[in-house]
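Tutorial handout. Part one gives the primary structure; part two gives the three-dimensional structure as tokens.
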Amino acid sequence: MRILVVDDAENVRYSLRISLEDAGYDVDEAADGEEALGKLRSAAFDLVVADVWMPRLNGIDLLQSMRRTSPATAVFVITGGAARIPIESTAAMARTWGADRVFHKPFDNEDLVAAIRQRAAG
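Part two.
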């Protein structure tokens, strides 16, 4: 399974990459939604794990674009909320636009790996 991790925080990308690679997945990274769209245009991914609040193109806009261009690709959204937007509102927005799962930061990487395994098992 090929996974794209999208987050503007390098330490989050690194942590997720290590956990996912240790679980046997092929992982690539993008620092924001714009970079992610470029990678999605040039390669196929089975799953995208994307943060919501990022510069240039946020995770909700990325999700909306993906639902138009690659609706079969699974999207797991991760969010810690924002200064004026409660985490529950951000999660609801992500689900409205088609996120397959939403994880609230901080979360245990093993919970994410378990959700990916469950999805892959069908």
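Part three, for discussion. DSSP finds five helices and five strands in the chain. The two ends are 13 Å apart (CA to CA).
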